[in-house]
Amino acid sequence: MDKNQIYAALQNVYDPELNRNLVELNMIKDVSIDNGNVEVVVALTTIGCPLKNKMKEDILNEVGKIEGVKSVKVQFGEMSDKEKEALFGKKKNSLNSFENTTILAIGSGKGGVGKSTVTANLAITLANMGYKVGLIDADILGYSIPQIMGIKGVRPVAIGEQAILPIETHGVKIMSMGNLVEEDEALIWRGPVLSGVLEQFMNEVYWGELDFLLLDLPPGTGDIPLSIMQEVKDARFLIVTTPQITAKGVAKRLGIMAQKTNTDIIGVIENMSYFQCDKCGEKHYIFGSGEGEKLSRELDVSFLGEIPLLKEIREGSDKGISPVVDLNSPVGKIYKAIGEKIIEDI
């Protein structure tokens, strides 16, 4: 047994948040061997890392497999500012290129159409389909993603001044203003400030490799949707509406704004399309019918599907328990079909 064998074993131990092995991240600061007793010194990106126990368990497991190892001891320290800078870059630079990431900006013409619920469930669906997914709650003042995703009260981890690590649940990495302020704190900010927060979420949060980054936009056609369309040049747009004529009319104005800024619209999702009686199976079109599909024709984009008005979706959002964790469930199948159409169109 020698140090080379131990370093080889440590290449199988990953930082769960950065998704890279500890050797590659230069987190292994020292390895010592004394008559079969091994000590590994690990420099964390932050000493308060919430997943260091997981890393310790993995180190004990991997190093313990080596023939001749009698015991394994793990010591934790913290990277220096220079080491963090070498890993994440200087604060003024973006930590992410998003070069191989499809950015989906999800908007609605008006509030109350279930856009955030659709965004959250779509993110979980794509993750369950095997994709690496991030989600930014860009509705800075009216955030609801923490509630829907079951992460209220959870704080993201800051690594000095270099980076912030997003919260992860259901395989989705998440950043929301709701995880940075107290629950009842009111934010009174103007458009330029809000756009600046979104820019920070894009550039100063370490997202790692992503296949999809979903942006849950505020409703309407205000500063933040317009800023994203102008600044995030490669963002693709997805519109959520309901069958109501008024909702469809406002959503159409949002679509026209996207077209004027040369933003590619992937398609339209109609939410709360109908209620299906759980006793007789009859569909009731409470808010009208066909307006989502009509909107897609008027904008000359794909109609991605209908999502019914279901009790389990509402209850899941209220309790922070996703109804799409199982893609073979009735709700899961609906979202999976929408996810597959999106993938076909990009």
Automatic annotation (TrEMBL):
CDD domains: Mrp_NBP35. Residues 3-74 form the MIP18 family-like domain. Pfam families: FeS_assembly_P, ParA. InterPro entries: FSCA_dom_sf, MIP18-like, Mrp-like_CS, Mrp/NBP35_ATP-bd, NUBPL-like, P-loop_NTPase, YlxH/NBP35. Keywords: ATP-binding, Hydrolase, Iron, Iron-sulfur, Metal-binding, Nucleotide-binding. The keyword Secreted does not apply. Homodimer. This is Iron-sulfur cluster carrier protein. It comes from Sporanaerobacter acetigenes DSM 13106.
